[in-house]
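Next up, a chain.

===
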Amino acid sequence: GNATYNNGMNNIKIWTDLPNDSLDQDNLNDTLYYDFIGCNSILSGTYTVGGPTADFADFASVMNNLYSCGVIGPVIFKVNPGTYMERLVITDSIPGLSEINHITFESATGDSTSVTIQYASAGAADNGVILFNGARYITLKGLHIKATGGNYAAAIVFENEATHNIITNNFLETISGNNYNARCISSDYANASHNQFLNNYM
């Protein structure tokens, strides 16, 4: 049959009943679960992030939608004031992303002190509040990006040929001290290229 699904996260549960026309003797192996994102439309234009009345409640919802639905034009995410205890992993796997169909995350107020994205890395594997893992054509604008981890505390990490990204008018913060892995910006310099850093406070 046909079914209509909601925009956003959906869950499907499928199970068997009376296999071989008899009572199921082992009901622990008869059920399948599948989670997926429903797309009313491919993203294009301006959207709000943060809070129950926004288009997206948080960054996790944004990223799920981007990876599942993609973009069909330039997209701006205006982030409402608040502190977001999240980590963003941005890859090159967003359908439709290009030099023309670029993505911008920016403070809705234009004030970098009004929006804080904060994360405490546990180690090298999750270092970076925002990880550009091969990502391209992404702009971060007017955000406070705060790393609060211990031995690893990078605000932004570039790796795997992340290129053509713009980091502008942000407040980048890490822990104090002489820790080699506590950096505002970290990069595998041999591969990350053509990234711009403009008017940031660190």
